[in-house]
Amino acid sequence: MPTSIRTLAALALTAVLAHQPATAQELDRLVVHKSPTCGCCGKWIDHIEENGFAVTPVDVADLGQVKREHDIWPAYRSCHTAVGEQTGYIFEGHVPARIVARFLADPPADAKGLTVPAMPVGSPGMEVGDRFMPYEVLLLQKDGVTRVYARIDSPEQQY
C-alpha cells in the first residue's frame, strides 16, 4: 500500500476512534463526601473503584451540610454523598457501580441523580456474610419528585 493511502487510512481510523462514545466510567470522576470514621463508605469506594470509576474521597465533619447543599431530602439520605465532578449528578448511599454506569450512559431528562436511602444490608459496602435485603435505587429528579430507577432483589443483580 502506498504511503499516502496508509496515511489516509490511519487518519480515517483516528477520526472514527475519536468519535466512539466514552464508557460511563470515563464520563465523570466521583467526589465522595463521607465521614472519616465510616467503614462502609470506604468499602463502597472500593466497590466503585474496582468497577473502573475514578474517585476523590473527601472526609467532612458535617455531612448534613453537604446533603443540604445538594438538596437531598432526609428521607432519601444515606451515609455518603458522591457527586460527579463534571456533571454534578448525585449518587447518595450504596448505589451499585453497574447502576451508576447505566445512569451515566443515558441519564433521564431532569435527573439530579440516584439514591439508595438508608443502608440496606448486602448492598455494595454493606456486606454482612451472605445476608441480603432487597432494596430500590431511586431516581432523584430536579423538581424533587422521586421514582424507582432499579429494583435489586438479589446480590447478583448488583454486579
Task: Give your account of this protein's structure.
With 159 residues, the chain is an alpha/beta fold. The chain has one domain: Glutaredoxin, CATH 3.40.30.10. It is 30% helix and 24% strand. It contains five helices and seven strands. The protein has helices spanning 3-18, 24-27, 39-50, 63-69, 97-105, and strands at 30-34, 55-59, 81-84, 90-93, 111-116, 135-141, 146-152. A hairpin with a 5-residue loop joins strand 3 and strand 4 (90-93). Mean pLDDT is 87; it is low at 3-22. This is DUF411 domain-containing protein. Keywords: Signal.
Considering the chains and any ligands shown, give keywords for the structure.
alpha/beta, DUF411, DUF411 domain-containing protein, signal, 7-stranded mixed beta sheet, single chain, Glutaredoxin, 159 residues, 30% helix, globular, disordered N terminus
Would you spell out the secondary-structure blueprint of this structure?
Blueprint: H1 3-18, H2 24-27, E1 30-34, H3 39-50, E2 55-59, H4 63-69, E3 81-84, E4 90-93, H5 97-105, E5 111-116, E6 135-141, E7 146-152
Parallel strand pairs: 1-2, 4-5
Antiparallel strand pairs: 1-3, 3-4, 5-6, 6-7
